[in-house]
Amino acid sequence: MIPAEIQQTKQRFGIIGNAPGLIRAITRALQIAPIDLAVLITGESGAGKEFFPQIIHANSSRKHGKYIAVNCGAIPEGTIDSELFGHEKGAFTGALSARKGYFEEADGGTIFLDEVGELPLTTQARLLRVLESGEFLKVGSSTVLKTNVRIVAATNLDMVKAVSEGKFREDLYYRLSTIHIEIPPLRERSEDILLLFRKFSTDFAERYRMPVIQLTEDARTVLLNYRWPGNVRQLKNITEQISIFETNRDVDGATLQNYLPQYNIEKLPARATSNEQEHSFFEKERKMLYKTLFEMQKELADLHAKVEELTREKIQGQTSYAPPQPVPVAQSMALTPIVPSVPVHVPSAKRTAIEDTVGEIIPNEPEYIEEQPTTLEDTEKETIKKALLRNHGKRKKTAEELKISERTLYRKIKEYNLE
User: Has this prediction a pTM greater than 0.85?
Assistant: First the structure.
């Protein structure tokens, strides 16, 4: 049972609906109306926030004073200080005379600041001073003026988010939200949708002198399942369009669908924001990089294991080979024969030993032949060069991949006495 005071308030201000959230908001407005405190009204655009400052003003001790409604989002940033607080003559270009601001005009009454979240930060600082001490300065003046107004503000923004992002002053938010009234959106007032449609269709039928629009059962279902992002304002506009354009006064669901924007009809899951999509993209990329690094690490470990295995096989193959005794330098120089200028072929036994330690043999590969060696030392160097060239042609994982230079290979061959 709705109290008589709330019913009278609804009839006086033309409020339609019996949803619990709407009744709770009206009750709260009536309770705080006699208390001279700042009020913050929040709700989505088109939900009917403009009625509640009027309810508060009409039931307060200031009801005989002025009531001024200001749309803060519609005033340019460069002139909003002049509009709210006034200016002196010559304060800026075009200021041909002094002018009173809204706060000076509403002295003793109520001022409604709609879309207060759109105020610039500099204007927010001036408004905070009015809330704290009732003092303000005109633009271009140094004289402090006093005003006695009650401020009722409204916004469709998430004020907590705006404060965290630095778009709205935190101290001003807590000053304005001494009393907080939240207006529910139309989608949470499903029992009021048909009542509002009937009220709007009756009003438009009287205005345009035509029969009242009637909805079929499927049209009512479509009306109730729609999300109404524009809330009561959107419902009123669609009702007016149907009343004007439809010659058949019985509207079915298919006809009604033509007037409803197709986005937002179904209650689909919310899509990810740009930040979430970006985070998901970088997360996938990071996983791919980690996977690639792990695969490279595994291949490197396998490569090291293969090198160690080849080294062990090479050492085991040399256990049966008796290295020749070193010859003194003087003796080797004394006994060095004169080698004729004919090509010297590498002995097959030594070549076989080198090939076994290096890798598989590629058949029919031409062998490297030294031209005109002069000493045993030159022959030995040419033999090592031949082994390096054969190793380069037969294996892809050569000294370049393992970072082993020709000098290192020469030293290892000398260590194993592969002369």
Answer: no
